[in-house]
Amino acid sequence: MAKRSAALELAILGVLAETPQHGYELRKRLISVLGLFSTISYGALYPALKSLVERGLLVEQDEVGTGKYPKRARITYALTEAGTAHFNAMVADSGPGAWDDDTFAVRMSLFGQTDVSTRIHILQGRRSRVEDRLANLQTNLSKGRERLDSYTLELQQHGLDALEREVRWLNELISREQGAAGSGNPQTSQVNKK
Amino acid sequence: MAKRSAALELAILGVLAETPQHGYELRKRLISVLGLFSTISYGALYPALKSLVERGLLVEQDEVGTGKYPKRARITYALTEAGTAHFNAMVADSGPGAWDDDTFAVRMSLFGQTDVSTRIHILQGRRSRVEDRLANLQTNLSKGRERLDSYTLELQQHGLDALEREVRWLNELISREQGAAGSGNPQTSQVNKK
DNA sequence: GTTAGCATGTAAGGAGTTACATGATTTT
DNA sequence: AAAATCATGTAACTCCTTACATGCTAAC
Question: Which parts of the chain are coiled coil (chains A, B) (predicted)?
């Protein structure tokens, strides 16, 4: 029922699915591996972990006596079975918010834990979303061509270019995946490859 | 003391500085002219307007008997003197958050109400911000080249390309402004123009 | 020893979204 | 008449950010 929360939870589960970790390190990985959340405050991370534990998706493992640092107050988090199931469900999900910038980025950076058909599904879903935005912007732009001042125009044109480039990028990725798999259904895109 | 609030308030003041309007229409203009806020809910807009009125930056003018629709419950908002002053201060501001995506976009779309030096200032500030992000990403990427899987790499590379393009775009805009004005200080950029 | 980084958490406060609530006006 | 859209607002809820509070460990 949240917005970024969905992306954040997915990211947490995804990283922990690879390696159980404690909060402090988890945060660093989220920042570097996913690179997306420029800053994830502890005020967001710990409550999120807590919530995941309460829902039975994670378990806390107090790290006692790990060699050199016997009494360090570390809490290692690991996925439960339910957590793994939930993670898989979230990755494959197509619900609202599934193609948002953040959520898509998280899902793509977790592609390593996914199969080809899921990857293609996500890439195509994202492409639809971007194409929608593109269409909106174009409509908007052609409608108000004259009424908008040059700076607004310039700004929106730049946004438009970025979207077109993303579609082309997604097309390439999709082709690559389809090449790796058997043959999928042919692509339908509104943007030409140059 | 807010984040988006800063961008939203700036946008509201900027649009009202051109033409006083009532909430409903204001929202539509914010969406189409600025194009940035895909959705601005009334639950965000009206409280924001209320706050601006309370702070003496806007005045409400009950629209009575405007020809055909005598009793329509419209409230037209217009800037006060203090509001105009505040708007000008915000546009020229360099405080934290001044170069964020949203805030920058709002400021640029309001360039029509600005003088050349302010425009250059804003464009350069934005460029610095983008270059910082670029540097971070590059560091991050060279550090973890091997540890990151190919998808994460691909994703970050795409983000990097987008940032580089934005810097080039900003360089062009800055040159254009400097050409229009007298001669400004020469540019220093980390990204070559290819 | 003292600074810097590791490590976990809470509390206050702000901002925004969704859903709800109401009513006028215009179009079909 | 019914449906769409204009028009304004509120309440509950969720989430995040900032700042604070605590202590251990490593390095200089």
Answer: 120-180
Residues B156 and B84 in one domain: no
Task: Tell me: do B86 and B120 sit in the same domain.
Answer: no
| 10-residue mean pLDDT series, chain A (194 residues) | 76 95 93 78 95 94 58 84 95 89 93 95 95 88 78 93 97 94 49 42
Cα distance between residue B36 and residue A136, in whole Å:
12
In a domain, A100, yes or no: no
Q: Report the b/e string of B178-194 with b at 16+ CB within 10 A.
A: beeeeeeeeeeeebeee
Same domain, B83 and B129: no
Query: For position A34, what pLDDT does the model report?
Result: 75
Q: Which residue is nearest to nucleotide D7 (CA to C1')?
A: B24
- Strand A58-62 and strand B21-22: pairing? unpaired
- At B22, which helix (H) or strand (E)? strand B21-22
Domain-embedded: residue A109: no
Verify if strand C has an atom below 7 Å from the CB of B143.
no
Domain that holds residue A52: 2-92
Instruction: Supply the CATH number for residue A50's domain.
Output: 1.10.10.10
* DSSP SS3 for B39: coil
HSE (side-chain half, CA atoms, 13 Å) at B156: 28
Clarify whether residues A87 and A6 are in a common domain: yes
**8 Å CB contact between B59 and B53:** yes
Regarding whether B132 and B60 lie in a shared domain, the answer is no
Select from B140, B154, B166 the Cβ nearest to the Cβ of A35.
B140
Compare CB distances from A140 to B35, B137, B155 and report the shortest one's residue. Answer: B35
